[in-house]
Design goal:
single chain; about 200 residues; alpha/beta; Rossmann fold; five-stranded parallel beta sheet; 7 strands; about 45% helix
């Protein structure tokens, strides 16, 4: 799907995010389950986190929605693939089996796992992060979303958000994203493709 805003918009990104949330929310409703799983993948700065937060805020069902960002899971700057595998094993698989999942936040300063968080299988779950959408994750998700945006827009957003902390790691992370895309073709696994400006 294209979330292209009208030319008269004062904020094209905001309009595109609003349109995308509407499309994803319709897919969630169509699932017809009280505890659907929605996953967002895309390159750094594409808009995954913004889209996931907006979806949770506008959730089309009742009750609490659990949101997990892989930025809290990746084990460091070389951890894209390991973070995705960890999320699948600790969060998504237990949720699919109807048991409580437990994941530990990655402490980037201490370079180790920190406090534990539980995931309730009876509640809806939204997980977002680069490298997330693999064939196994696609099987566990009710709605899978690939978020895309032009490279310059992505880089500007990511560096505006994380600044000098991220700047020296941009290329390093992008190479891991390239490997994920080459190895898993996440666009082909997505039930919704969102293109943001």
């Amino acid at each position: 799907m294209s979330s292209a805003p009208s030319r008269s918009s004062a904020d094209p990104l905001d309009d595109a995010l609003t349109a995308a949330v509407s499309v994803v929310a319709e897919r969630v409703v169509a699932v017809g389950a009280p505890n659907p799983v929605v996953v967002f993948d895309g390159r750094s700065g594409a808009g995954k986190s913004s889209l996931a937060r907006r979806l949770v805020a506008a959730w089309p069902g009742r009750g609490r929605v659990q949101l997990v960002a892989l930025d809290d899971v990746y084990p460091g700057w070389d951890g894209l693939a390991d973070g995705s595998a960890y999320a699948c094993e600790s969060i998504l698989r237990p949720h699919a089996r109807g048991v409580i999942g437990v994941w530990e936040r990655w402490d980037w300063d201490a370079d180790e796992r920190a406090e534990a968080h539980a995931v309730d299988p009876s509640l809806p779950l939204v997980v977002e992060g680069s490298g997330l959408l693999t064939p196994e994750v696609a099987r566990l998700a009710d709605v899978s979303v690939w978020v895309d945006a032009p490279t310059l827009s992505r880089k500007t957003r990511a560096l505006d958000r994380d600044g000098d902390t991220y700047r020296p790691h941009w290329d390093r992370w992008a190479r891991q994203e390239d490997g994920h895309i080459a190895g898993h073709d996440p666009v082909s696994l997505a039930s919704v493709v969102v293109r943001l400006p």
